[in-house]
Write a structure and sequence with these properties.
The structure is a single chain. This protein is α/β, with parallel strands linked by helices and 287 residues long. The chain has a single domain, classed as Metallo-dependent phosphatases (Purple Acid Phosphatase, chain A, domain 2). 33% of the residues lie in helices and 25% in strands. The chain has seven helices and twelve strands. Strands 4-5-3-2-1-11-12 form a seven-stranded mixed beta sheet. Strands 6-7-8-10-9 form a five-stranded mixed beta sheet, covered by helices on one side. Helix 1 packs parallel to helix 2, helix 3 runs antiparallel to helix 4 and helix 5 crosses helix 6. The longest helix is centred in the middle third of the chain and has 21 residues. It is globular, with a radius of gyration of 19 Å. The chain starts with a strand and ends in a 9-residue tail after the last helix. The structure holds manganese (II) ion (MN). The site of manganese (II) ion has 8 residues, from loops. One of its GO terms (molecular function) is hydrolase activity. This is UDP-2,3-diacylglucosamine diphosphatase. It is an enzyme of class 3 (hydrolase). Its EC number is 3.6.1.54.
């Protein structure tokens, strides 16, 4: 038995299960090494855009089973939807046992307000975020509607949906500008709305930075991804940090903790347990 690291809150995003780029084994090793009270999955965990029945390896299934097992063992799981898993957006507000699905969430952390969302709604609308911020609490919801509308229009026109990787490939210069604008506008919106922390993902750029304007300050946090950066955000003892898998030596926590005779039956069994747990009375909702 190895000792797991106790953390109050862990945040991961942009895992992209079901794609060739996803480093599921590294993620499994990480998840096996921690014992969080709450685990936030901040979007693009399962990649429904690229979902293909012929490619969903065992290690990817094991990540899903691991998360369900964590929920069954008392970890609160908050699944925030992203653009690649937007098929789940219609389940906003659903709670199954310890797992809840939301499009965004506000949590109180030691008296400070933390705002969590995936971040894709800023793709088309970065330049509009500033004046939308002035509309207070409605800003984010308006961006969501606007973004959905633009997606729908471009889809009808037969054009591809916005692709970040494509944008980055176009030119390094425009990619850097895009990332900077994204970080700045999200921070400004969070400051306008009085959040101490704003936690997102989506652009695959792990970051933790205190951003200050004349209106106030906020801590901008991005959990990165499990394709290239292998990063997570951890909150413990009133502090945030970025966890870098590549800088950690986790040899004792090998993936073999869950044995190789794993199959679909195990996953179904795990889901059934969660469903039974869901029949217990509901706890009060955050946000
Ligand atoms: Mn995304």
């Amino acid at each position: 038995m190895t000792i797991k690291r106790k953390i109050e809150l862990a945040v991961i995003s942009d895992v992209h299960l079901g794609t060739y780029g996803c480093q599921a084994k590294a993620l499994l090793t990480y998840l096996n090494s921690i014992a969080p009270k709450t685990l936030i999955l901040n979007g693009d965990i399962i990649d429904a855009w690229h979902f293909n029945k012929r490619y969903f390896p065992k290690s990817h299934l094991k990540v899903i089973k691991k998360i369900i097992d964590m929920a069954a063992n008392g970890v609160k799981i908050i699944y925030i939807t992203g653009n690649h898993d937007e098929v789940f957006r219609k389940f906003d507000g659903t709670e199954v046992g310890n797992i809840s699905i939301v499009n965004k969430i506000v949590l109180e952390l030691d008296g400070k307000k933390a705002w969590f969302f995936h971040g894709d709604v800023f793709d088309f609308s970065i330049q509009h975020a500033k004046w939308l911020a002035k509309l207070g609490g409605y800003g984010y919801d308006l961006l969501t509607v606007l973004n959905r509308y633009i997606n729908w229009v471009t889809h009808k026109l037969g054009r591809e949906r916005f692709s970040l990787s494509k944008k980055i490939k176009n030119s390094v210069k425009s990619a850097i500008k895009f990332i900077k604008d994204y970080e700045r506008e999200i921070a400004h919106l969070a400051i306008e709305q009085g959040y101490d922390y704003v936690v997102c993902g989506h652009i695959h750029q792990p970051k933790m930075e205190l951003i200050e304007t004349k209106n106030g300050k906020t801590m901008y946090l991005n959990s990165g991804d499990w394709i290239e950066n292998f990063t997570a955000l951890e909150y413990q003892f009133k502090r945030w940090k970025i966890y870098h898998y590549n800088e950690d030596k986790l040899a004792p926590f090998s993936v073999n903790e869950q044995e190789d005779n794993f199959d679909m039956q195990d996953l179904i069994a795990a889901i059934t347990i969660v469903e039974q747990a869901a029949k217990k009375p509901k706890k009060e909702k955050v946000d």
